[in-house]
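Record Bifunctional salicylyl-CoA 5-hydroxylase/oxidoreductase, 804 aa.
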Amino acid sequence: MPTPGVPASGARGAARQTSAGPRPPHPTAPPRRIAVIGGGPGGLYAAALLKRLDPARDVTVWERNAPDDTFGFGVVLSDETLGGIEHADPVVYAALRRDFVGWDDIDIVRRGATHRSGGHGFAALGRHRLLHILQERCRSLGVRIGFRTEAPHPDVLSAEYDLVVAADGVHSTTRGTYAQVFRPQVTEHRCRYIWLAADFPFDAFRFEIAETEHGVMQLHGYPYAHPSPGHHPATIHPGPPDGSGASTVIVEMREEVWRAAGFDDLSPRESAERCAKIFSDALRGRPLRSGNSAWTTFRTVVNDRWSHGNVVLLGDAAHTAHFSIGSGTKLAVEDALALAACLQEQPDVGTALAAYEEERKPVVASTQRAARASLEWFENLGLYLDQPPRQFAFNLLTRSRRVTHDNLRLRDARFTGAVEREFGCPPGTPPMFTPFRLRGLTLRNRVVVSPMDMYSATDGVPGDFHLVHLGARALGGAGLVMTEMVCVSEEGRITPGCAGLYTGRQAEAWRRVTDFVHRQAPGTAIGVQLGHSGRKGSTKLMWEGMDEPLDTGNWPVVAASPLPYTPDSQVPRGLSRAQLTDIREQFAAAAWRAARAGFDLLELHCAHGYLLSGFLSPLTNLRTDAYGGSFERRLRFPLEVFDAVRAVWPAERPMTVRISATDWAAGGTTAEDAVEIARAFAAHGADAIDVSTGQVVAGERPEFGRSYQTPFADRIRHEARVPVIAVGAISSWDDVNSLILAGRTDLCALARPHLYDPHWTLHAAVEQGYTGPGAVWPAPYRAGSRRPRTGRTDAPRPRLTLSG
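=>
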């Protein structure tokens, strides 16, 4: 059924398909004729908004499916999204509001126990109903919709129309047509899932875990339709035929579990019947229906660009985010709102599309990071099954890192308090201020001042700067303060300003620092990080040119293999067996000096592409002898160094190891490798693993974001069964509390926050109203343990207004 006025096929359409692609947007005119490919919620809402904002526009929608065809059952929208809809189109908002199901609670069900958390605030309605509302709104505004109609080729539409909105879904034909411009990346994940429905309403958002003989399966369920009038009243109209209300049910499991359970041989109907039996308690013995759904794997879609000429991507065509943090419909609707606003605000299509992309891409990227964290949590669900029940529930609720300890406490203080009590928090004690023991050392809280290179030593000797820098952070309340990487030899320095422990003079200078910490900040531990720069040595101070070779005075550098760090870097010498022995002894000698200098903890630096890290990574270790090749051989030298250091380090004092858990580069160290590396060091006596990432190869592509490295620590903690220190963009005390209470880490190391505020830990205690032993103010500072007043806020308010 071709749409009137638009060629769908034939000679003219065929000719267009061989054209050079979308025509450039008109430089000055707003769009008058608009084509929308895809009649899902995002495409329909964009069409309605664009027509409503300018009734003179010609807006046409192509949808290859029938009006009632849909995949999935319920749609969840946030308060923020609903607010945008209300502001942009009160008619649509009013129609949605009449059918929304609202609820506040989340139930987590595992091993027969249910833990409920309240105060969350959800709203959902049936996907069919949402489509009908948007279809009706489009018709009332004069938008033309062609159902069961394939859209013409994008080249044809871009030539006939001023703007082409491609809302054609996760398998977007438009995106594929211009893949060389959009540069999509589609990642397929490890779990299989199926959309089902139950003909009754859950009274909460329900997560239920089933531990079967084949493996772990999980149910995600939420209500989307109220019981019809005449049924018994419930907090939870159109649903199933009997009017009893309805819920979306998503069943998800790892691919290998799905196959072992035989789901690969079952039809959708048979799968629904099987799932209903597995989750019979959650369903109260009722059946499930499958609709048009089939088992599938989730695909994360990312595009480098969202527009090409006058063609723009919207919704799943541009991006996807895992269903476990909310509906893709939410993102599509928000895209439509932003696109309509940009087209209204900007003078022409090109400027508007650039503004749309600039506005939406950071928001979507943040959502996708949270969705990825949530997705991976469910992929690795089996790691957490042995957690205490309330901690497991808290871990699930905070999995995306968007819901935090403080946020959850505001929503449901009773639930959060129960989790804290189970964890062992004394009354009034935030998780971050609980003690932690490593061998013979008890840290009074879970905060670590992360190692930070200061490049301020002279001939490797720490001076007054180090005394003030580390002393200030020790006075600031952290449980453990770490030095920068302290080099084990002159040749092992990164820069001429790096500190060392290869002479007695250096050890004496470090003793001055440790004595100050122990005397003036009792209860604070101080640790030393020992390392060797390897191929990243002989470079300028960071602020003069990071990783750039010195202009003069270079010293030769060494590495596992003769590979320069960057094309401009010095080519290192590959180490001989004799040189390996010398370096191992240098580490042992430095450790002996560190013990005499009074350090409480020693960390071996095996991360960030420095010497020992260079042996671990297959990208930097190309040796063919006993120290290269296989995973075990690449581990050999770092473990030999660890053993030599442990032999001279006092038995009662703990040792940790910092590793790069991924190289962020193809062919490099993986998360799976990191678990095995951690296991190996733990077997040799490491008391904790400090889990960082990257900086091993210059061509890395890190996935930055809030707490972005903590999933690696989480995995190592649960798979290798060794305490971990999490690092990487942990910036708030709320983050620390969340990570500790969820069991994702044992300690949190923060760098930049301690540069911004040396008293970060003490101030975190003040802001949380905590005054216990986990955060003790030094006696001379106690008068400053309350936030200073900034100005009068208690002036009397006017009571009377006198008229003249």
